[in-house]
Amino acid sequence: MNRFIPGLLMAALWVLLLYIAPPLIFWFVMTVGAAAALHEFFRMAVKTPGSGTRTLAIASSLSPVLAAYAGSPAAVLTGSYLALLGLALLVIFFYTAFADPLAFLLNAGFSVFYVSLCCAFIILLRGLPDGSHWLLILTAITAGSDTGAYYAGRAFGKRKLCPPVSPKKTVNGAIGGMLAAVAAAVLLGCILLPEVSCLKMAVAALLLAAVGIVGDLLESVIKRGTGCKDSGTMLKGHGGLLDRADSLLFAAPLLHTLLAWGFFA
């Protein structure tokens, strides 16, 4: 129950944001969420001399998300450059304040791509034709993969998928998760986007679910490397924002790329 009620509320809020909220509100909420996710990442992996430096670094790392309001990949790319420029200037002018300037630059720079750039693609997806439908399908793919992997792993899982990173994940669980993701994508696709081929939707779901698993494992690498059980405690029973959004973040740029390349045409 501690997980079900917050999960239901998050799902309801997400649907409202996708279908009711105007673009400006969606962008604002995603920006706040990205800032919170960056705070979680910095808390785990980025050592700063003080709270003021951390705030400046997070503000700089947020640039791709802020630039996504323009609605173009070019603007997001410029925002990514500005984020790295801001972090570089922060290290250069406060070099002696950092215990390990290079480690800060590398870890904070990674946050620009891992959190901000991927989050910016969620905003870009929302702005595409039928973008809300595609984002709901992507959410169903990642959530279906996660749920399917859990139950398939419990029922059939024996062979470990990547035990040094995540001891509980199994190969059978991953296969079950991908099959669940395909089922969810095809079902929702038939309802929301009937013009899209079921075969193409299934192939895309397999790719997106696989990338989502990589995103999940990547966050496990970060948590294992920093000694953290969860990325945060913001979502009661669900950990932090990164714990819930790791797969979605990693899969969003791929879906945007598939749409840009006309894969579903």
Overview of the structural elements:
It is built from 10 helices and 2 strands. The protein has a two-stranded antiparallel ribbon. 75% of the residues lie in helices and 3% in strands. The longest helix has 29 residues, at 198-226. It folds into 2 domains: 20-127, no CATH class; 129-265, no CATH class. Strand 1 (160-162) and strand 2 (166-170) form a beta hairpin. It is globular. It has helices spanning 4-19, 23-45, 51-61, 63-67, 73-93, 101-126, 131-156, 171-192, 198-226, 241-260; strands at 160-162, 166-170. The chain is mainly alpha-helical and 265 residues long.
The proportion of residues forming helix, as a percent range, comes to: over 70%
**Rg, please?**
19 Å
Largest sheet: 2 strands, antiparallel
| Broad shape | globular
Weakly predicted, low-confidence segments: none
Strand percent estimate: under 5%
Number of H/I helices = 10
Class by SSE composition: mainly alpha
Please list the strands of the largest sheet in the order they lie side by side. Answer: 1-2
Features:
265 residues, mainly alpha, 2 domains, two-stranded antiparallel ribbon, 10 helices, 75% helix
Can you lay out the helices and strands and say which pair or pack?
Elements: H1 4-19, H2 23-45, H3 51-61, H4 63-67, H5 73-93, H6 101-126, H7 131-156, E1 160-162, E2 166-170, H8 171-192, H9 198-226, H10 241-260
Antiparallel strand pairs: 1-2
Helix pairs in contact: 2-3, 2-6, 3-5, 5-6, 6-7, 6-10, 7-8, 7-9, 7-10, 8-9, 9-10
